[in-house]
Amino acid sequence: MMQLLVIVLNKLECLDKLLTALEEEHIPGATILDSRGMAQQLEGHDELRFLGSLRMLMNPAHKENKMIFMVLDGEKVRTVSRVVNEVTGGLDQPDSGILFTVPISYVEGLGKYQ
C-alpha cells in the first residue's frame, strides 16, 4: 500500500546529508517546504510570551524547520525511518523532528518514482 511519509526536520543542518542518504537508498522524489512550529509563530505575542521563553530554553537558534513529503510504497517506510534516525542522531532526541505516515488510497502522476 502506498503511504504519504512526512518528516518534520528540526535539525536543518542534516537536510543535505539526509537527502543524499535517501537517494543512495534509491528513495527519490521528496518535496520540501519551509515550516514553523506553533511556539515559533506565537513567540512575539505578549499573552503567550511564556511559549517563546520555553522555546529559547530548549533551542535558542531553532527558528524554523523543514517538512519533507514523500509518496512511497509502504515497504520503504522502515528504510526511510532508519536513514532519518541515523542522520539526525535519533528522532527520540529532543528537537530533532518527527516522522509519520498516512495511507494513500489513490495516487496519480508518480511516473518513474513508483
Verbal overview:
The protein is about 30% helix and about 25% strand. Helix 1 (about 15-25) packs antiparallel against helix 4 (about 75-90). The longest helix has 12 residues, at about 75-90. It is of the alpha+beta class. It has 4 helices and 4 strands; from the N terminus they run E-H-E-H-H-E-H-E. The chain has a 4-stranded antiparallel beta sheet, with no helix packed on it.
Sum up the structure in keywords.
four-stranded antiparallel sheet, 4 strands, Alpha-Beta Plaits, 4 helices, alpha+beta, about 110 residues
Summarize the topology.
Blueprint: E1 2-9, H1 15-24, E2 31-35, H2 38-42, H3 49-58, E3 65-73, H4 77-88, E4 97-103
Antiparallel strand pairs: 1-3, 1-4, 2-3
Helix pairs in contact: 1-4
Brief summary:
This is P-II family nitrogen regulator. With 114 residues, the chain is α+β, with helices and mostly antiparallel strands.
State the low-pLDDT regions, or none: none
* Main beta-sheet annotation: 4 strands, antiparallel
The backbone outline, from C-alpha atoms, is globular
Q: Helical region count? A: 4
Q: Which architecture per CATH?
A: 2-Layer Sandwich
In CATH's first tier, which class applies?
A: Alpha Beta
N- and C-termini, Cα separation: 12 Å
As for the number of domains, it is 1
The residue fraction in helices comes out at 25-40%
Strand order of the largest sheet: 2-3-1-4
What is the fold-level CATH name, i.e. the topology? Alpha-Beta Plaits
Give the SSE order as H and E letters: EHEHHEHE
How many beta-strand segments?
4
Output the structural class. Answer: alpha+beta
Average pLDDT taken over every residue: 85
What proportion strand? 25-35%
Radius of gyration: 16 Å
